[in-house]
Amino acid sequence: MPNIAMPENEKSYSTETISAIPPISANQLLGTTLEEKRGRPHLSDFSIGNAPIHFYSIYHSDTQVTEFFGILNKGLSPKEFGQLLSAIAPFGDTDEAYDAIKDWGRILNIKNQTLETQLLRKQHSKMGPFWGILMKQLDFLREHLMTKNLLNPSSQNEIVPLIHWQVDNSGKRSWLYDYLNTNTFSERIRDDFIRKSSADHILRFKNKDQGINPLVGIYTTAHFEPEISWKWPQHEGFHSTDDFDIPTQLMGMAQVAGQALRHGEELLRGNFIQAAENYIKQSSVNLI
Questions:
Q1: Is 246 in contact with 119 (CB distance < 8 Å)?
Q2: What sign has the CA pseudo-torsion 200, 204, 209, 211?
Q3: Mean pLDDT score of the chain, rounded to an integer?
Q4: How far is Cα of residue 218 from the mean position of the Cα atoms in its chain?
Q5: Residue 149 gets which letter from DSSP?
Q6: Does residue 154 register a pLDDT over 60?
């Protein structure tokens, strides 16, 4: 993996310096047009490849880590969120987010102790360190998206994808799962994005920090990387050696929420992230 260094004009900046990059869409960044339909008729009206992405970077001189943020200047309605999951799922025969959220609800409801739910919960828990991340954020997404009619495309309840990752001084990339309220740096980025974006619906969020969501950013990256995500197996399992013998499971809309995290390192090595880093390095920056 190549060593990712900061541009010369940023190396002397302190850790309090944030670079804001001119917005660019995924289609412009990749020099191509995403095939967003994936041969699935129910995705015929789904399109996010032309939506501008606001990129930001911070170089932390104390740790020699560069932190990157990409915020899509488009809120995803419940219907569009379902379409996004369907677009990246190896098996996505529907775009109804309710189908995925229903399964998430069964996992998250600790009072639900049916054998089927125990198996489902145990299967997902085999994700290791990703389990806690997934459960924390799915709980918010479920609550946020269930407050409106999921089948109503005009719903104002939306989620903005946040693509958030870092690169250390050896070139190693890793995903970050923080909301934009964890420190003064991210809060400044959130406020700058809201000022510049057309996503005025963010101001209506009960919690505008969680409305800009890093988990959905990973799903969005998977969508921008069809050469990777379209090769994910249709069946992937979390085999158990104890009392529950769990077979591999079909990776549909509910399951791809975890599958994308398990394949997260592949996404970090993909064309989209590399193109984003190159664009950030080569662009004129505005300091905020």
A1: yes
A2: negative
A3: 75
A4: 3
A5: -
A6: no
Q: What is the Cα–Cα distance from 45 to 100, expressed in whole angstroms?
A: 20
- Distance separating alpha carbons of residues 166 and 66, to the nearest angstrom: 6
From CA 30, how far away is CA 38, in angstroms rounded?
18
Output the six-digit token pair for 165: 């990752």
Q: How many CB atoms are closer than 10 A to CB 236?
A: 17
Predicted pLDDT of residue 273: 98
Q: Which of 28-42, 60-74, 172-186, 255-269 has the lowest mean pLDDT?
A: 28-42
pLDDT in tens, 4-17: 333 333 333 344 58
- pTM beyond cutoff 0.85: no
Per-residue pLDDT tens for 10-48? 333 344 589 999 999 999 999 988 766 666 777 778 889
- Nearest CA to 255 out of 83, 77, 127, 75 is that of 127
What are the sequence ranges of the domains in the chain?
A: 8-287
Residue 165 CA to residue 154 CA, distance in Å, equals 31
Residue 199 neighbours by CB distance under 10 Å: 20
Are 86 and 70 in contact, with CB atoms under 8 Å apart? no
Element (H, E) at 55: strand 52-60
3-state secondary structure 154-196: CCCCCEEEEEEEEECCCCCEEECCCCCCCCHHHHHHHHHHHHH
Report which of 153, 161, 151 is spatially closest to residue 51, judged by C-alpha positions.
161
Tell me the helix, strand and coil percentages in the chain, rounded to 5. 45, 15, 40
Grouping H, G, I as helix, E, B as strand and the rest as coil, residue 52 is strand
pLDDT at 280 over 80: yes
What is the C-alpha to C-alpha distance for residues 95 and 253, in angstroms, rounded to an integer?
Answer: 8
**Is 168 buried (19+), middle (13-18) or exposed (0-12) by CB count in 10 A?**
middle
